Amino acid sequence: MRDLRLSIPSKGRLAEETIEFLKSCGIDIYKPNPRQYEGTIPIIPGLTVLFQRPTDIVISIRNGSVDFGITGLDVLEEHRGTDGEILLLHDSLGYGKCNLALAVPESWETVQTVADLRVEVESWGRPLKVATKFPELTSRFLTAQNIPFEIVSAEGTLEIAPAIGYADMISDLVSSGQTLRDNRLRPLADGLVQASQSVLVANHSVLKTNPQALAVVRQLLEFVEAFLRAKNNLSIFANMRGESAEAIGARMFSQTTIGGLNGPTISPIVVRDGDPNWHGVHVIIHRDQLFSAISELRAIGASGVVVTPVTYIFEEEPPRYKAMLAALA
Amino acid sequence: MRDLRLSIPSKGRLAEETIEFLKSCGIDIYKPNPRQYEGTIPIIPGLTVLFQRPTDIVISIRNGSVDFGITGLDVLEEHRGTDGEILLLHDSLGYGKCNLALAVPESWETVQTVADLRVEVESWGRPLKVATKFPELTSRFLTAQNIPFEIVSAEGTLEIAPAIGYADMISDLVSSGQTLRDNRLRPLADGLVQASQSVLVANHSVLKTNPQALAVVRQLLEFVEAFLRAKNNLSIFANMRGESAEAIGARMFSQTTIGGLNGPTISPIVVRDGDPNWHGVHVIIHRDQLFSAISELRAIGASGVVVTPVTYIFEEEPPRYKAMLAALA
Amino acid sequence: MRDLRLSIPSKGRLAEETIEFLKSCGIDIYKPNPRQYEGTIPIIPGLTVLFQRPTDIVISIRNGSVDFGITGLDVLEEHRGTDGEILLLHDSLGYGKCNLALAVPESWETVQTVADLRVEVESWGRPLKVATKFPELTSRFLTAQNIPFEIVSAEGTLEIAPAIGYADMISDLVSSGQTLRDNRLRPLADGLVQASQSVLVANHSVLKTNPQALAVVRQLLEFVEAFLRAKNNLSIFANMRGESAEAIGARMFSQTTIGGLNGPTISPIVVRDGDPNWHGVHVIIHRDQLFSAISELRAIGASGVVVTPVTYIFEEEPPRYKAMLAALA
Amino acid sequence: MRDLRLSIPSKGRLAEETIEFLKSCGIDIYKPNPRQYEGTIPIIPGLTVLFQRPTDIVISIRNGSVDFGITGLDVLEEHRGTDGEILLLHDSLGYGKCNLALAVPESWETVQTVADLRVEVESWGRPLKVATKFPELTSRFLTAQNIPFEIVSAEGTLEIAPAIGYADMISDLVSSGQTLRDNRLRPLADGLVQASQSVLVANHSVLKTNPQALAVVRQLLEFVEAFLRAKNNLSIFANMRGESAEAIGARMFSQTTIGGLNGPTISPIVVRDGDPNWHGVHVIIHRDQLFSAISELRAIGASGVVVTPVTYIFEEEPPRYKAMLAALA
Amino acid sequence: MRDLRLSIPSKGRLAEETIEFLKSCGIDIYKPNPRQYEGTIPIIPGLTVLFQRPTDIVISIRNGSVDFGITGLDVLEEHRGTDGEILLLHDSLGYGKCNLALAVPESWETVQTVADLRVEVESWGRPLKVATKFPELTSRFLTAQNIPFEIVSAEGTLEIAPAIGYADMISDLVSSGQTLRDNRLRPLADGLVQASQSVLVANHSVLKTNPQALAVVRQLLEFVEAFLRAKNNLSIFANMRGESAEAIGARMFSQTTIGGLNGPTISPIVVRDGDPNWHGVHVIIHRDQLFSAISELRAIGASGVVVTPVTYIFEEEPPRYKAMLAALA
Amino acid sequence: MRDLRLSIPSKGRLAEETIEFLKSCGIDIYKPNPRQYEGTIPIIPGLTVLFQRPTDIVISIRNGSVDFGITGLDVLEEHRGTDGEILLLHDSLGYGKCNLALAVPESWETVQTVADLRVEVESWGRPLKVATKFPELTSRFLTAQNIPFEIVSAEGTLEIAPAIGYADMISDLVSSGQTLRDNRLRPLADGLVQASQSVLVANHSVLKTNPQALAVVRQLLEFVEAFLRAKNNLSIFANMRGESAEAIGARMFSQTTIGGLNGPTISPIVVRDGDPNWHGVHVIIHRDQLFSAISELRAIGASGVVVTPVTYIFEEEPPRYKAMLAALA
C-alpha cells in the first residue's frame, strides 16, 4: 500500500502561512528540493507531503489520490460536490481569511443591498452578467436570492470586467477592499457569498478503511487543537496572602476570569520574615482577559504576578477527532 | 463611441516583457496607479490600455469588449474558437517563447515517441488519462494521433499528477525542462503540441467597421515591424580606396553580405595626403553576418570600419498591415 | 467627543521598532491601508493610532490635536516648550537610543573637550558657528558652557558643513560614530548635549479632564511596564533536598541572587525511591544574574535546574501611573 | 583658492535620478566611499561634488560655501531670498517633476476652486489654517488670492493634519494624487502653487569674479543642453530616387517634418542595376514626429528608411550660457 | 596580558547560524562596525570576538593567536595536525551539518560502492585522480581503502572537474545532492569521508596556563549545554485526581515517558466543588515524546494538560567541562 | 575530438561583469540551468562555456583541460608557472581592476615606504611575517626588495592577522582602501605588488595544433578589440560651409582632435535657400576629446553638430591576433 498523503498549498502567502502554522503546531515539514512537489514530516513517519494548488487539493482528495489536505473553505465549497467523499476535519485553522462577496460599480448609487440588486435587475428585463472564479457558490447564492443571472468565467483581474462591459458586476475574494475601490467598485452591504479561511479535510473512504489513516488524523488534530487552544491563553503565577489554600481558592472563585481550566494550583511560599500565610497561585487565563485578570488578582490581594507563554493545551480527547469518528460511524 | 482598447498581460514575467517590448518599439505605456488595471499610451491618443490575464485577453477580444491584445499563441489557439472573431495580426513578436508538450514518467522506458505511446495505451485496454491546462489543444493533438484519451483538468502543479495517480501523464508548458526532471518526467521526442510566443491580435468586426481602429493597427504594426527588423541589423561605415563610387560598388556587389538594403551609400573622403581615391561607404547588414561582413570588407580593401546601432527600419508599407487588409476584404 | 489618539513614528527604523515594541507588550496595531496614516488597537477600543514624524508628534500633543504619543526624547526636549502641556509618562522605553553630541574636525588636535573648545573660540574673537537640527538644545548647552556661538540651520548631511565652511562644527545625533569618522569629524569627550531614547508622552489637559484618557494611559503603562520588567527576568525551577520548605528557604535567603520577587515557592517532590525530603523550588531571577544564580543554586545542593521565559511581570500598581496621578494633582 | 563645488541631492529617488541624468549627459561622478559626502567628476578636474539635501543646496549656494548645484525649483523658490545671490542657469532639466498644490478635505463639496475657498473662509470669520513645508511660497500664493490665513509648520505626513484638526487644509507636493485620495483629501482645480522640476543653479558672485567657474558652467551647460536636445531627436537615413540632390531636396522641403536642422545631406547611391538616380538622404527629425516623417518620406518616394539613436546635438553656443553672461553683465 | 579571543565564522550562512546559535544560548555578540572583524560579548567581559574563515580559525587556534573558536568539524580534522594543540570542547553544536563524500560520474554504472571503485581503479593501471578541497581527509580515507590515488587541488566548482577531464572524480561537501545531480555526478553508497557539523574548540596551552581562560570555557559550556539540553524538552503541567501525591507519583512512575528529570512536582489543587483529591502535576519531558506523554497522562487520568517552553536546563556540572579538565590533567 | 572550452568566473561580481562584458562585445552566453556549470555561445558553435573560480581557470588552462579563459591577471601571475603553457591573449579587458599591495598597521608611523620597511625589519633581527593569499607574487616582490620574510597562508579576512599576532603585515587585494582603514591598516606608498584586471588567456599547445582553436581566438579577439576601441569613440556629423570638400578638409586637418580615423567624409548638403557651399561632415573622435572637438568644430564654422553612439570599430586585423601568431611561430 502506498504512503499516506497530505497536500498543502504550493505557492504564495497561503503556502508560507500553512508551513508556518504547521511548524507552530510542532509539525515541521522537510522539503529536500525546492523545485520538487514532495516533502516529509519527520515526526509523522509514513506521511508524504504534497504541494498543490488549493483547487487541485480538493479534487485530489475527492478522487482519492490524496488522503488529507489543508486548503481554503472557499475552494472546498466550490468543488466538494455532493458525493460525500470529502470530510471536513477542522473548519477554522485561524489564518488565510478572506470573503467571497458581490461587488457592483460605485456608480450604481441605488444598489446598496442584494434586495436593491434584485429590483435593479428586474427593471432591465435581462439576466445579470456576473464575472467570477466561483460559479458554483455564486450561482447558489443568486438563485437563493431570486435574481436572474448568467455567469461569465474569467482567469483573473475580474475587477475590470464591469468597466469594459465584459460583465455587469463581479463575485470575487475581498480582503482590504482597496483593489475594489481603485477600480471604482463597491461591495454590497449584505453580499457575502462565502466567508473563508484555511481548513483541514480528508478523504472519507480512506478514513473508513485504513486504521493508519485514522492514527495520522488523530495526531494532526491533537497538535492542531492543542496549539490553537494555547494561542489564546497565558500562564499566570502570583503571590497571595491567606490563611489556607482553600481560603485563597474561595477568593479566586469569586472572580470571573481567574478560575482556571480546572482550579488554581496553590502552594505555600517561604518568605524571609517567616510569615506562614503566603501562597503561590498558578492559573491559566484567556489572553484577552489578561487586563481584567490582573485587576481581579490585585483586588483580592495578589502581588508579584508573573505571566509566561503557553505552547500547547491538551484536553481529554480532541473534540474534532470525536466528531469525525461519529461522522464515520 | 467608447475609446479603443488594447489588452496586455497583467502579471509576472510576460507583463514585464510586454511593457519592455512596446517601449523598445517606441510605444511607452503610462499607468498612473499600480493597483488599477488601466493605462494610456501618450503617442496613440484615444487608445486605452487594459491589463488582463492572457486567457481573459482572448475571451475579451472574441466577445468584443476589447479591440486589440498581446497574448500568447498557446492560449489564443486554446480559446479562439471557430467563429473567426479573432484576427491574428502578428504571430511572432519574438519573446514569451514556450512549448506545450507531452511528458511521461521517466520510468516508462519504452515510451520515447508518440507512436510508442499509442502502442503502450493500446496494450492497457483503457484510455490514457492526461492532466493539462490546455484540454482543447491536447485533445486535438491526441485525436489526430489516434490515441484513446481522457482529459483531467488541474489548476497547477501538474508535474505531480502522474506520481500521485491523478493522471497517467501530462501535457504542459515546458521551458528548460528542469522542473520536469526534478519530478521524474520526460518530454516525448515528438510530443510538441503547440509552439508558442507572444502575438498581436484584434477583433475582426471592429476592424471591418471602425476606421479609427484601422489607423491604430497601422501605427502599432509600423512600429512593431520597424523595431523587429532593426533588432537584427547594424549600420556600417567603412573607408575604401577606389577610382570611383561605381568601382567600389561593383566590388561590394561581388560579396554576399554587404550589398545593403538597396545599395551602399558611397561618398568621397578627404584625406590628409590629398589622395582623391578614398571613399566612405555606408551599408546596413544583418547582425548575425557581422563577422563575415567584416571579412568581406577587409578582403576588398576596407579599413576603419565603424559599426553603429539601428533603432528602426521602415519598409514601404508594413507587410502584415497589407496582409490584414487582404484578410478583411 | 472624538476618539482618543495615540501617535507613533511613521517611517524608517523607529517606526518598525515602535510597532515591534508595542507588539511585544501585547498591544497589536491594525493598519488596514499601508498608505493611510491611521490604525487601531483591537484590545484598546476607542483609541485611534496615527502615524506621524517624531517632531510632529510632539507639536500635535502640545497643541492638543493628539492625546498620547511615542517619540524620541531628543525631539521632545527640543520642541516641548515651557507651557507644561506635555507630560512625560515613561522616559526609557529601551529602544531608539542615540546621543546628540558636539563634533569637531579631526584636525583640531588641541580641542578634545568642551573646555578646550571654549579656549579655542575665545582665541578667535568671533562666535562659533554650529550647524545643527537641534538649535534649542544646542543653544542651551553652549550657553551653559559660556561659549559664544551662532546656530546655522540645516536639513541634513550636517557632516559636510565644516568641510565646506558652512559651519565650524556640528551638533548632531551619533550612533556608531562611523559616519563622523568617514567625514573626518571627532566627537568631543564630554560633548554629550542630550542622551535620547523612545519615550511615552501625553497631553496634560486631556488627562486632567477626560477619565477615559486616564483609563487608556493606565492600560498602556500596565502592559509597557510589565513587559519591560519581564524582559530582564527568567523563571527558574530546581529540585532541592531538605528537611522542610523552611529549611530550604533559609538556605536560599543566605544567597544573594535567588531570593525571588517575594519568596520562592517550594513544594514537595515525589521521587521514585520514596525519599520524602526532595522539594521543587520556583523563583524569578534577573536575567543577567543567571550565571551566579546557577552557581548559588548548585552551592546549596540544587539539581535539575529548568529555566523558562517570562512574558510579563505585574507589580501592585504601575509606579509611573502613580507618578502621573501625582503630577496631575 | 579652494576647489570649485557642485552640490547634488544626497538621498532617495532624486539623488539617483540626478546621478543618472548627469551620466546620460556624459558627466560621470566618482564617489569613493558610499558613506562620505564627497565625489569628483573625472572629465571636469578641479570640481568637487558634494551630496546635500535639496534645501541645504540652496542655502549653501546662497551663502557662497558651494558654487553650483542641482536642486528642485520648489525649494529654490522657497529659500532663494531676495539678495540675488542665486543665479538660475537651467530651469528645466526634465526630471524630478512635482507640483506644490493646495488640497482640501473631500467633504468640502462646495470648495472646488481657490475662489470657492475664499468664499468659504470669509464665512468662517477666522483665518484659514494651512499645514505646509513651504510657508514662503504658500503665503505668497494665498496673499495674492486675498485669503486670510495662518501657516502651521510640519515635519512630514501633512496628509493627516486636516483629519486630526491640526490644520484646516494642506499645501503639499503632489505626484499621482493617490496619497491624497487615501487620506480623503482633494486638490483644488486651480490650486497649483508652484510647478517644480530639477534645475541647475550657481552662486552669482563666484561667476562674476572667477573665470574658472565660468569655464565649468560652460562645460556643464554644453553637455546638459546637447543631451536634452538629442533626447527628443532621431537620425534618419533613407534611399530616394531623383534626378539630382537638388530635386530631392526640393521634394523634402515641400514637407513639414523632414527639413532637418539645416538641410538634409544627400549623396548618390550605387545600385546593382546601375541606375544613377538613387540617392541616400540623411536628416535629423523630432522623435515625436517620427510617424508623420515616415509617411512624408514614403509620400515622396523614399524606401529603406533606417532610424538610429542620437547622443548629443550641439548648437553654435549654449543659449543658456549666453543668457547667463547677459545676466552677469 | 592580552584579552582572550573567540573566533567565529565571518561569512555566509555559517556566520549567521553561529551568531543565532550563540544568541539562543544567551550569548549576544556586539559588533560595532560591520566591516571590522572584531566584536565583544557584553556578558563575558574580557573576551574579544574575532570573525575569520573556518580554516583560518583552526590555524589561528593551533598557533595560539586565538584561544577559542567555533568552526566546522570538517576543516578542523583537515587542519588540526598532530601536535595536540587543539582541544575539541564540544563536538556537536547541532547546526552547520554537511558530509564530505566521494562522488563519481553517473555514467560509471558499475561503481556503486568504495569496493567497486577499488576494482575499477585496479583495472586502469594508473592512480585515481580526485579533485578536492580536503586533501588530508581524502588521502587518509583512500589510503585506508587501499585505492591508489593522486589528489588534484581546486579552489571551487569541483563538480565540473570530472566532465572536463581535470580529475576522475571528486571528494566534496554534499548537502541535498542536487548540485551533484545537476552535474551528472552520484555519491558512492558508502563513500562518507567525514560527517561534519559546527564544533567548539580551544587552544590546549592557554587552558593549561590561564585560569581566566578556564573560567570563560566554563561559562561558554554552561550556556551551550543548558541551551542544547533545553531545546529538546518541554515543561508540562496537568491536573490529576488521586488520594495523595505519592499515589499520583506511583501512577506516573508506572509510565515510560513522564518520570521527569528527578521526580514530578505534585501540589494540591483547590477546586470549586471542594473535592480535596485534585493535584497539579509538573514534569519535564522530551519534546519528541510529547505525543506518547499526552497519551500516558490521559491513561492515568490527567486532564488540562498545559505545555510551556523551556529556555535552559542546567545539570550539576557541564559534563564536557569535566571531560576537558580530565583531558588537561 | 572534444568541443573547445572557454572558462569564465563562476561567482560574484566578476562573474556578472564578465557575462556583461562579453554581451557588450556581441557574445551572448546561453546557460540553460543556473546550477550547472556549462553554457554555450550561439554565435560561436562548437565552443562550450565553463564556469570556474579564477584560480581553477588558470590551472585548467595550464594542464590543458580548458582551452581559453577569462580570469584576473593577479591569479594568472600567481599560478601560471614557468612552462609557457599559458598564452596571454589580451591583458587589459578594462574591468575587474584591483591591486595586490602591501599594508602595515597604522601604528607603524615610521614605515611609509618599502625602504622604511626594510630598515624596520633589519632592526628586528627576524624575518617579517606576511599573511597573504598570493605567496608566489609576494615572495617575488619581497625577495627583489631584499627583505627577509616568511609567508603565512590564510583563507580570508587577512585584515585581522596583524591585530591578532598571526602575522606582522599583509599583502592583499585593495580597492577603495576602506576595509584596511576600518582594521587600522595602511598601504605602503610604493607597495604595489601587482596591478590586476581581467585578461583573456589560452592554452599554448592547443593553439599550435588545432586550427579550429585559432579560428575561435580570432573571432573572440575581433569582437573584444572592436568593442573596446568603440567604447572610447563617438561618431560626429556637422554642417559646414566651404567652397569645396577639400577646403573644408584642410580646415579640419588644421585642428588637433577632428582628423578622423582616416579622413572625414564630406558631402554636399542641399539647403533651403539654394546656397551650394554647405557640406555635411562626418568624423569619428575620441570620447574624452568631445569638448575640445566641439570647440574646434565651432572655431572652423561648423553648426548643427550631431553626436551618435558607436558599437564597434574594426581595424584591418586585430593587432593582438597578429601578436599571438608571432608568439606561436
Please provide a written account of the structure.
Six copies of one chain form a homohexamer. By secondary structure, chain A is of the alpha/beta class. The first copy, chain A, is built from twelve helices and 16 strands. Chain A has helices at residues 12-24, 54-62, 73-79, 114-124, 135-144, 161-164, 178-182, 204-209, 211-231, 245-253, 290-299, 319-328; strands at 4-9, 38-40, 47-52, 68-72, 86-90, 98-105, 128-132, 149-153, 169-174, 185-196, 198-203, 233-241, 265-268, 278-286, 303-308, 312-314. A six-stranded mixed beta sheet of chain A has the order 2-3-1-4-11-5, sandwiched between helices. Chain A has a five-stranded mixed beta sheet with strand order 8-7-9-6-10. A four-stranded antiparallel beta sheet of chain A has the order 13-14-12-15. In chain A, a hairpin with a 6-residue loop joins strand 2 (38-40) and strand 3 (47-52). The longest helix of chain A has 21 residues, at 211-231. The radius of gyration of chain A is 26 Å and the shape is globular. The two termini of chain A are 24 Å apart. The model of chain A has no long low-confidence stretch (mean pLDDT 91). The A-B interface holds A 5, 10-11, 33, 35-38, 50-56, 59-60, 63, 65-66, 153-157, 159-160, 163-166, 178-179, 182-183 and B 5, 10-11, 33, 35-38, 50-56, 59-60, 63, 65-66, 153-157, 159-160, 163-166, 178-179, 182-183.
